[in-house]
Amino acid sequence: MNCSMFSAWMDCNQRDEVARELTYVEFPTKFVFKKDERCWKRRKPGGFAIGRIHVVSPTLGEAYFLRILLNKLKGPRSFDDILTVNGPKFNTFREACYAHGLLDDDMEYIEDIQEASHSGSGYYLRTLFATMLTCQTLSLPERVWQKTWELLSDGILYKQRHILKSPGLCLTDDEVKNLTLYEIEKILIRNNSSLRNFNTMPYPDHELISTSNNRLITEELDYDRIDLQEQFENLLVSLTDEQRFIYDDIMKAVEDNKGGVFFVYGLWRSKGEIVLNVASSGIASLLLTGGRTAHSRFLIPINLNEDSMCTIIPNGDVANLLKKTSLIIWDETPMVHRHGFEALDRTLKDILKCDGSHNSQSPFGGKTIVFGGDFRQTLPVIQGGTRQDIVNASLTSSYIWDHCKVPTLTKNMRLTAGSGMHDVEQIRMFGQWLLDLGEGKLGGSNDGDAIIDIPDDLLIMDSADPISSLIEFVYPSLLENYQSSGFYQERAILAPTNEVVDEINSQLLLMFPGDSKEYLSSDSICETENLHDGFDQILYSPDVLNGLKISGVTNHKIVLKVGVTIMLLRNIDKKNGMCNGTRLKVISLGNRVIEAEVISGSNIGARIFLPRIGIIPSDKKVPFRFRRRQFPVALCFAVTINKSQGQSLSRVGLYLKNPVFSHGQLYVGLSRVKSRDGLKLSILDNDGNLTNRTSNVVYKEVFSYL
Fold it and tell me: What is the pTM of this model?
C-alpha cells in the first residue's frame, strides 16, 4: 500500500535526526516529498518552501485536535508517539491536546491544586484558589471547590484547635468547609473581591464574618504606631533642606484640612491617620509601605476617556476609606494618562459632595494629594500616537495642573545612597550629565530627537559578542551564583523593545544548567465574537492565535528552567506584593503549576504557586477578542526600559541594538543605577557595528509648565 505524505513523514522521522527536530508544518522547509517514491528527502541547499496544513473546522472533532498537535509536535514516529505525552499514552487526540495544555478545561485547575498540595501547605493552596477566582479563569468555580475542598482545608482544624486551646477539638465537614471559605474570603477581600461575586460559590456563615467594620479602613490603620514614630523621627532628621521645606508645606495642608495638590518634581501614619500610598506601576508600588497600584486602589478604568469615572460604589468600603483619608501620595505620575487623574478628581468630588464636605468642589474634593515623578522619564503610552498625542495625554496638559504646587528636588538620592565624601564630585558630575540628557541639552539642538555621544568609560566595545560581554558585566560568574536569590535582586539588562529582550533572555536561558520545560498556551476566540454578523471563527484557527505576540501578554510558548528569574505580568495578590512587575525565582516546574520565590518588593522570600490564567488582550491592533490561557510570567534577566521604570539597581547593562524611540527612554535606562560604576552600554549602528553614538528622544514642551 502506498504511503501518504503524512505517514511518510513519520517514517522519515524514524531514520533522520534532522527530521525529528521539525514539526509537520516546518517539514517542507528542509525536506521535499517525492511523489514517485512516496517518501520525504532532504531539500537541496538553497531551496525554500513554506509548509501549510489545511484548515479544519472544530466540528470535525478528532481531525481538528490532530491538526493542533501537528503544529506543535516534533519528530513523532507513529500515531502512538502523537498520543503519548510525558509518558502516558492517551486514547484520543483531544486528550493529548489537553495534556499538552492546549485546551481550556477546569480539570486543569483541579490538577493544579492537587499538584501544588504535594509541597504546599493549605495556606498556599487557598491563595492559589483565590488567585484562580480573582483572575476569572474558572468556568465552574463551584466544581473546582467541590473536588478540592479537602485539600484547601489543610491546616484549618489545627488552627482552630490552637485558637481555642482544645487539642481534642473535632469539626464536622460543614464546619471545616465554612472556616475554609472564610479564609478564602479574607484573601479575596484584601484584593477588592469577594465570594459574593461568584454566584455559584458557597458563602461562609454570616456569624463568622463581621460586617460591622470596613476592612479597608482597618487595614490602613493596622500599623505599629510606635515603630512608625521611631522611623519618622529618624527620617525627619535626615531630610535635606529642600525636602524639609516641601514636607512642612504638605503637612500644613493636611493639618489645616484645606486640601491641596502638589507635584514633587524628582522626588502620618504615626499619628493614627490614613495615608494612601499608590504608584502608577506595580514595580513602583512595591517600593512603598503599604503601596498599591493607583488603578487597583481607586478602581480607575483601564480604558479611559475624558468623561471617565472611577468605579467606586457610593458609601461602599472604598468610598468610606477615601472619606477617612488624610493624605494621598501618588508616585510615578508622569506615565499615566491625564484622564486617569481627572477621573479620580471627578469621583472624589462626587463622593465628598454627598458627604456634605465644605471642600467638595476643590480639586480632588479637598483631599491633600501629592504627586511624585520625573517628566524626564517616559510619558503615557499612546498606541500609534504622535508626539502631540503623547504630550497632550500628559498630566501637565490637564486642568488639574493649574492647581498644582511644584516644589523641585535637585539631589539624586539614588546616586548618593551610601556614598562617601570622596565620591561626591563624581556623583555630582554624573548626576548633572543625566539631568542634561533627560532635558535634551546634550548633542546640540534637540527638537525631539538628537544624536549624543556616550562617554567611553560607560561603553562595552567587544565587537565579537557584545551581548555576552554585557551578560558578564551584569551577571558575573553566573553559574557559580545562580542559586542565590540575592544575586538577581538588583541586576538587569535593559533594551527598548520586547524582541531584543527575548533574544537576550533566550541566550541566558541556554547558559543555565538543567533541563528546560516548555509550556504552551490554550488560545480561543471569545464567545462574544460569535455574536457578530459575518465573523467566521474558522478563519482564526488555534495556530493563528498561537502566533500572536502582544505587549504585556505572555507568549504562546514559554520555556523555563529551575533557578531562572521570571517576572509577573499580572496583578495576582496586590496586598502581598504579587503585582505586575514582581520578580520571582523559579523553585519547581510542575505540569500544572509553577512554584516560585519572591526576590523583589516588600515580600522577599515568600513562596507562591502560580496557575495558568485566562488573559484577554486589550491591544486595539487585534481586530477581535481572544482568550489566552497561560502562566502570567516571562523571563526577566532582561526587561524593557519602560518596565524598569521605578526600580533602583546596582548593575545595569543597556543594550541598544536599535535606538530608543520615545521620550525619556534613554534617561530611564541610564538613571536606574546607584553608581556610575554599575552602568555599561553596548550600542550598535545601522550596520550592526559597535558605536559610541545613539539617539536621545526628548519632548521639551512637556517641561514648559514646570
Answer: 0.76
